[in-house]
Write a structure and sequence with these properties.
Elements (H helix, E strand, L loop, with lengths): L2 E6 L5 H11 L7 E7 L2 E7 L12 E2 L5 E9 L2 H10 L9 H12 L9 E9 L4 E6 L8 E5 L2 E5 L2 H4 L11 H10 L13 E2 L4 E6 L2 E6 L17 H19 L6 E4 L4 H11 L7 E7 L7 H11 L2 E7 L3 H13 L8 H13 L4 E3 L4 H4 L4 H13 L10 H5 L4 H4 L3 H7 L15 H7 L5
Parallel strand pairs: 13-14, 13-16, 14-15
Antiparallel strand pairs: 1-3, 1-9, 2-3, 4-5, 5-6, 6-7, 7-11, 8-9, 8-10, 11-12
Helix pairs in contact: 2-3, 9-10
Length: 447
């Protein structure tokens, strides 16, 4: 990852401010730092070099000096885009994906976002139009925050950089806090901090002398049942899925540094690791986290997969007390209250990768959401089944089969199970049906 910060507006001492902002997020980019200032605008960048190691310094300007970008992320299809731009007569001075964005913006303006396949957040200062464009990737993998102070727009990859702006403070937003304890997270563009906002996933912002305009450039599309692609054979669907996963892994392996992979022992990371292992001639390095608790530990599966794939495997143990010790650091980097401790073992795992000298790892994150792998999806089907006969004393026993690894749940009565999982007390067509038990469990109790 990299990080950046900047401003649009008339301020004094722009360069010292950018230096403080980039210093606050220096952990995001240990390789290089850069500052760009122009009348009424400024950009600062800290770099973790992955593509274009020797010539991808940022902020990066085009030859005319009228376009300047600060970019965090990776454009996975930059090779294809660069070839298309060269075919149209474009000349490149670097081997980085950053320069590809600059050329696309010069040709297409904000419409260039439709061509980018990647995880990204960036800011482009357009001196000709006297405007700043901020953009964030479709799923919001890369963060981007902003605030308005004294008529000047400030933005950064992390909130802590914005706290370097005079007059900006880390004041808790009580509405966001209520959302966190009810819905597990603040609803974007709101953040836990009053008057500090995040650019929503799949959105862009145009800022100029007339103010700011924010709009989506992409949004999720959920087709109706009759609009979904139909497959005569399951094998055809499996073949297409394999092709998509293979291509997605292939383009993420593009880097000028070694690429490793997380290996949890589950299906998702195992599939990604298996695909990646066949795409590297140097051997794949995999990383896992283990637990003392047998309920959580998956080291046997991790070791089995690592042996089958022939990877160079390392694991780090997460022992009793580690989560409590690491949690303050986790909060410092997440910059929000967290009601689950799961990020702490992942933080420890990322530390192992860093100790191994790697900058890039592949993960299976997001697969359970896309492929309905979480137990919550099966649970929702059982809850609907129970909801159709809310008085049944037999149907709630099915919840035990969903969670055989929770011994406390096995001892509960059918009445308790029905009450705990909300079987029959939620409308079956409620858009939040699957999450109601969790929301109920973390919502504030009304007195």
């Amino acid at each position: 990852m990299c990080g950046f910060g900047g401003y649009l507006g008339s301020i004094r001492d722009g360069k010292p401010l950018l230096e403080r902002m980039t210093a606050a997020i220096g952990h995001r980019g240990p390789d290089e730092r850069g500052i760009f200032t122009a009348p009424g605008a400024g950009l600062g960048h800290v770099r973790l070099s992955i593509v274009g190691l020797g010539d991808g310094q940022q902020p990066m300007s085009d030859p005319s000096g009228e376009l300047t970008i600060a970019f965090n992320g990776e454009i996975f299809n930059y090779v294809e885009l660069r070839d298309e731009l060269r075919a149209r007569g474009r000349r490149f001075r670097t081997s980085s994906d950053t320069e590809v964005i600059l050329h696309l913006y010069e040709e297409m303006g904000e419409d260039c976002l439709s061509l980018l396949n990647g995880d990204f957040a960036f800011a482009i200062w357009d001196a000709r139009r006297r405007r700043m464009m901020l953009a964030r990737d479709r799923m919001g993998v890369r963060p981007l925050f902003h605030t308005l102070k004294g008529g000047t727009l400030y933005f950064a990859s992390e909130v802590k950089a914005l706290l370097e702006v005079p007059g900006v403070s880390a004041e808790i937003d009580p509405i966001a806090l209520d959302q966190i304890f009810t819905l597990w997270a603040p609803i974007a563009p709101r953040t836990p901090f009053r008057d500090i906002h995040e650019l929503e996933p799949g959105h862009l912002m145009i800022a100029d002398q007339n103010g700011t305009t924010t709009r989506p450039y992409w949004q999720l599309d959920y087709p109706n049942r009759d609009e979904r692609p139909a497959y005569a054979e399951e094998s055809r669907a499996a073949e297409e899925l394999r092709a998509l996963l293979t291509d997605a892994t292939r383009i993420r392996m593009r880097a000028d540094v070694p690429v490793g992979a997380y290996l949890s022992g589950g299906l998702d990371s195992s599939i990604i690791s298996a695909l990646a292992a066949g795409m590297t001639s140097q051997g794949l390095r995999t990383f896992s986290v283990t637990f003392d608790s047998a309920e959580h530990d998956e080291s046997a599966f991790q070791e089995e997969m690592a042996a089958a794939l022939g990877t160079e495997h390392r694991a780090v143990a997460c022992r009793a007390g580690d989560i409590a010790r690491d949690f303050p650091d986790v909060i410092r980097f997440t910059e929000k209250p967290i009601i689950r401790t799961a990020p702490a073992p992942l933080y420890k795992l990322s530390g192992l990768v860093r100790e191994a000298g790697l900058k890039v790892v592949l993960t299976g994150e997001g697969a359970d959401e896309v492929f309905a792998g979480y137990d919550i999806f099966k649970e929702a089907r059982v809850r609907r089944f129970c909801g159709r006969q809310p008085g049944s004393r037999i149907r709630p026993h099915l919840f035990r089969k969903l969670y055989p690894y929770l011994p406390g749940l096995q001892q509960q009565s059918a009445e308790y199970l029905a009450a705990f999982f909300g079987a029959g007390d939620v409308a079956l067509d409620d858009p939040l049906f699957s999450h109601r038990p969790r929301l109920k469990g973390t919502a504030a109790t009304k007195m």
